[in-house]
Amino acid sequence: MDRNEPDPSGGLERITVIEHPMVQHKLTILRNKDTGSKKFRELIKELAMFEAYEATRHFQLEPTTVTTPLCETSAYTLKGRKVAVVPILRAGLGMVEGILELIPAARVGHIGLYRDPETHLPIEYYCKLPDDIDSREVLIVDPMLATGGSAASAIDFIRARGVSSEKIRLLVILAAPEGIQAVFDAHPTVRIYTCAIDDHLDEHAYIVPGLGDAGDRIFGTR
Ligand code: PRP
Ligand code: URA
């Protein structure tokens, strides 16, 4: 799609909200201010795995045969998809393990960004991506999509390495409308997966109602 061409769906086709009851139940516990770091980490991992199921739904299968204890039968196997998981440091690290449980052969790249506390703009401090990332489907993972600055920058890095935006999927736990808009404005064909779209950003660019500072809650910092 041409970046200047308006999307007639308003982006609705490119955002998937995971409405599964188990996801929504776990998200409620995650939001609770009294949920401690250990439980918070477990929930982020589980929710990331649920999201990865949705984000790999388009993968193709090819026929094969398998011998069960009873007989040989026809079956299916994945058709040669190579995946890279790219967490945005720090908080994105919390989602990696759950995704690798589903896709153990995936390679992992890392992009280090933090938000300047005054301007809320992303500052880069690290980037290490698999050499063959341009031949992979890329899952960028970060629990929070707030202003969208961090996610849009991460997508810039990956596109600069030759990955087409159709092969990039952004997996977040919570998204603000402002962040969704910013990502789609910069990268119109990227797909976003989230457990919920929250109401708005506050004056510090925190998601409301949100879950607070995801990195601090995962790693027990403040
Ligand atoms: C958080 C979060 C995202 C970013 C979202 O990271 O994990 O990366 O903010 O905000 P944005 O959409 O407005 O860019 P933070 O900068 O707090 O760093 P951390 O993960 O190291 O805590
Ligand atoms: N980063 C977070 O960790 N939480 C927010 O609400 C916004 C950005």
Describe the structure.
The protein has 222 residues and is an alpha/beta fold. It has a single domain (2-219), classed as 3-Layer(aba) Sandwich (Rossmann fold), CATH 3.40.50.2020. Helices cover 31% and strands 28% of the residues. It has six helices and 15 strands. It has helices spanning 21-31, 37-55, 93-102, 149-160, 177-186, 214-219; strands spanning 15-17, 61-67, 72-78, 83-89, 107-108, 110-115, 122-128, 137-141, 144-145, 168-171, 174-175, 191-194, 196-197, 200-201, 207-208. Strands 1, 4, 5, 6, 7, 8, 10 and 12 form an eight-stranded mixed β-sheet that branches. A three-stranded parallel β-sheet has the order 9-11-13. It has a two-stranded antiparallel ribbon with strand order 2-3. A hairpin with a 6-residue loop joins strand 6 and strand 7. Helix 1 (21-31) runs antiparallel to helix 2. The longest helix has 19 residues, at 37-55. 37% of the residues are buried. The structure holds 1-O-pyrophosphono-5-O-phosphono-alpha-D-ribofuranose and uracil. The site of uracil (URA) has 9 residues, from helix 6. Uracil (URA) binds at residues 91, 144, 146, 206-207, 210, 213-215.
Any key phrases for this structure?
binds uracil; 3-stranded parallel sheet; alpha/beta; 222 residues; 8-stranded mixed sheet; disordered N terminus; 28% strand; 31% helix; binds 1-O-pyrophosphono-5-O-phosphono-alpha-D-ribofuranose; Rossmann fold
Rg is 18 Å
Count of the separate structural domains: 1
Distance between the termini: 42 Å
Mean pLDDT comes to 94
Question: If helices are DSSP runs of H or I spanning 4 or more residues, what is the number of helices?
Answer: 6
Helix/strand/pairing class, anyone?
Answer: alpha/beta
Which ligands appear in the coordinates? 1-O-pyrophosphono-5-O-phosphono-alpha-D-ribofuranose, uracil
Overall, the morphology is globular
Largest sheet: 8 strands, mixed
Percent in helix? 25-40%
Q: What is the CATH architecture assignment?
A: 3-Layer(aba) Sandwich
Instruction: Indicate the proportion of strand residues.
Output: 25-35%
